[in-house]
Write a structure and sequence with these properties.
heterodimer, A: 328 residues, alpha/beta, Rossmann fold, eight-stranded mixed β-sheet, four-stranded antiparallel β-sheet, 9 helices, B: 342 residues, mainly alpha, MetI-like fold, 2 domains, two-stranded parallel sheet
Chain lengths: 328, 342
């Protein structure tokens, strides 16, 4: 069912110029923020994108939002290539793809009331010219985002709300356009642990009630388990393992995923596990190591890893990992 | 309700500050060395009796203040007098009656001199301020919008250079240049022009304002531009700007609806602060261009130890700075909703 795919990413790359090597060198250098990502997202599916900071997951999100220009590759949204969309097409797309940013303290304009913030997208896209109708949609979005009764919030300012409430306002501002795809870039990492579950439950509910597809970006594998259908693990601009949530969390194949999972605290003091602590720093994304990009830190690296860059290897119909050790 | 209390609190502080300035103003000039009666009568032929008469006339024979232990080193106090007979008491009493005293030098009421001079300064500095704010903010927005391009760097360097020019030096340079290009170089109007029709007089004053206003704009524009640029760049880096972009707002809408309003906050503070420095800057500009304003009045009053006139100008400056700050505070509470609930 090709129509079932809402978003398809084909070998997407995003490089940033990082200046030249020296004063006299003409060779330009690049940060390989996103370095060949392939991904398919089904309608109504939630995919978690996991990776440490600097692995390119936020750049990937911004590129998908067309806030950054892709260097290579293409993005197909609802069957159409949007990588090089015109400004008009972009504006139309913004109604269907919306984003929730990490820090709810930064992503709301402090001089606007909640009503102004949530209703602005409607005005910008020329939806609901009727003021009553607009207010109704704002109220509906706020209540869908869990701010009930919405009338209590309309005339308040962001600084009068808590972090969790602010993030709900951000989500309401995204929902009011009734998007098909929501990209949430670490939406809970700035919030208290008690609030995190609430926001994640809210996103899970939205998937149920509105059938929205969600790309949920996080550096914390622990929060993924709650509601993602699939998990993609990113390392230095690439997806190194992807599979259903159960496959990746219970039977990780890539050494990087195994290391990430081994350090998640488990609420059982008697359970003794072997923790894999990765040695060394993440390599500089300007000078990527040759061969497998994980080999300098990999506890299982073999000689071949220094020379051969592995591609994703199929483990099951839904599970893939990029590691030479998995080769048959 | 909240806003009302905020307003009340700020007004209360403003009044308290004015009171403090009143007292400070009085002692500040009396601590200075020099005798006004002597300054008035530089003429060595003047007899001691005549000088004494002048002293009595201006109340300078009375002690500055009654007994006040801490002030004895300054030789200002005297314990044997009636407190109501001191200069300080008379000063406060007169002020409460709206009486600013008589200028020692010109013998005219200080209030009259100030009224006439203030209007000239407001005309010159008002025009200069408004134009430099408009031009500076506009260039600042433009530079921030074109950040890290040749336009931006050009504006940045121009702004820095303009900001660091000494006011009097720039004034003198422009004065030289203007004198060879047919601009009037001093005063407020052509002598004898008061008999001409009103329209001609207005044009004449405007013509006289060109060079001093230009000096003012060049010096102050740079500051507004640099502050606006960096403030706007800060705001443009905020997440809510990215959010707005993701919501589909055009670059112009983002600038107009989100960025400029937030970036204006430091400018409002700067304007309020500058109104104080404005008079200091005006001292230089008015001295260079012989403009009959407050700055010129300060300059002349210092030369002749004209206490009442100095007190009057300082009081006026202090009150206007405090008022400007009050207005800035109130504007803030309107621009930034976070200010009310501190």
């Amino acid at each position: 069912m090709p129509n079932d795919i809402i978003l398809e990413i084909r070998s997407l790359k995003k490089y940033f110029a990082a200046g030249s090597r020296g004063w006299f060198s003409r060779r330009e250098r690049f940060v390989h923020a996103v370095d060949g990502v392939d991904l398919q997202l089904r309608r109504g599916e939630v995919i978690a994108l996991v990776g440490e900071s600097g692995c390119g997951k936020s750049t990937l999100a911004l590129t998908l939002m067309l806030l950054e220009e892709a260097s290579e590759g293409s993005i197909l949204f609802e069957g159409k290539d949007i990588t090089r969309a015109s400004p008009q097409e972009r504006k139309a797309l913004r109604q269907r793809i919306q984003m929730v940013f990490q820090d709810p303290y930064e992503s709301l304009n402090p001089t606007q009331t909640i009503e102004e913030i949530v209703s602005e997208p409607l005005a910008v896209h020329g939806l609901t010219p009727n003021a009553n109708e607009r207010r109704e949609r704002v109220i509906r979005a706020l209540e869908d985002a869990g701010l009930k009764p919405a009338a209590d919030y309309l005339y308040r300012y962001p600084h009068q709300l808590s972090g969790g409430q602010r993030q709900r306002v951000v989500i309401a501002g995204a929902l009011v356009l009734e998007p098909h795809l929501l990209i949430a870039d670490e939406p809970v990492s700035m919030l208290d642990v008690s609030i995190r579950a609430e926001i994640i439950n809210l996103l899970a509910d939205l998937r149920q009630t509105r059938g929205i597809s969600v790309i949920f970006i996080t550096h914390d594998l622990g929060t993924v388990g709650y509601f993602a259908d699939r998990v993609a693990v990113m390392y230095l601009g690439r997806i190194v393992e992807i599979g259903t949530m159960r496959e990746v969390l219970q039977d990780p194949k890539h050494p990087y995923t195994q290391a990430l999972l081994s350090v998640i605290p488990v609420p059982n003091p008697r359970l003794r596990r072997k923790r894999i602590i990765l040695q060394g720093e993440t390599p500089n994304p300007i000078d990527l190591p040759g061969g497998c990009r994980f080999h300098p830190r990999c506890p299982l690296a073999i000689e071949a890893c220094k020379h051969t860059d592995p591609s994703l290897i199929k483990i099951s119909s839904s599970h893939q990992a990029a590691c030479l050790l998995l080769q048959p | 309700m909240n806003r009302y209390r905020y307003l009340l609190k700020k007004t209360g502080w403003a009044l308290l500050t004015i009171l403090f300035v009143l007292v400070l103003n009085f002692f500040l000039f009396r601590i200075l060395p020099g005798d006004p009666a002597r300054a008035l009568t530089r003429d060595p032929r003047m007899k001691a009796e005549a000088r004494e008469i002048l002293r009595v006339r201006f109340g300078l024979d009375k002690p500055v203040i009654n007994c006040f232990e801490t002030l004895t080193p300054l030789k200002l106090g005297d314990c044997r007098v009636n407190p109501f007979e001191t200069q300080f008491f008379i000063y406060i009493k007169n002020l409460l009656q709206g009486e600013l005293g008589i200028s020692y030098k010109t013998n005219r009421p200080v209030a009259d001199i100030l009224a006439e001079r203030l209007w000239n300064t407001v005309l010159l500095i008002g025009a200069g301020q408004i134009l430099s704010i408009v031009v500076g903010v506009a260039f600042g927005v433009f530079a921030a919008w074109k950040a890290r391009t040749a336009i931006d760097y050009g504006a940045l360097i121009t702004g820095l250079v303009a900001w660091s020019l000494p006011t009097f030096w720039l004034g003198i340079i422009l004065l030289f240049w203007g004198s060879t290009h047919g601009f009037p170089i001093g005063g407020k109007a052509t002598p004898g022009s008061s008999t001409y029709p009103l329209l001609y007089q207005i044009g004449d004053v405007a013509n006289h304002m060109i060079l001093p206003t230009l000096t003012y704009i060049i010096v102050y524009m740079g500051e507004y531009m640099l502050v606006m640029r960096s403030s706007l760049l800060d705001v443009l880096a905020e997440d809510y700007i990215l959010t707005a972009k993701a919501k589909g707002l055009s670059a112009f809408q983002i600038l107009k609806d989100h960025a400029i309003k937030n970036a204006m906050l430091p400018i409002v503070t700067l304007i309020a602060i500058n109104l104080g420095f404005t008079v200091a800057g005006a001292v230089q500009i008015e001295a260079v261009f012989s403009w009959p304003g407050l700055g010129g009045a300060i300059f002349e009053a210092v030369e002749s130890r004209d206490y009442p006139l100095l007190q009057g100008t300082f009081l006026l400056i202090a009150v206007s700075v405090i008022l400007a700050n009050l207005i800035a505070d109130l504007t803030y509470s309107y621009l930034d909703p976070r200010v009310q609930t501190e």
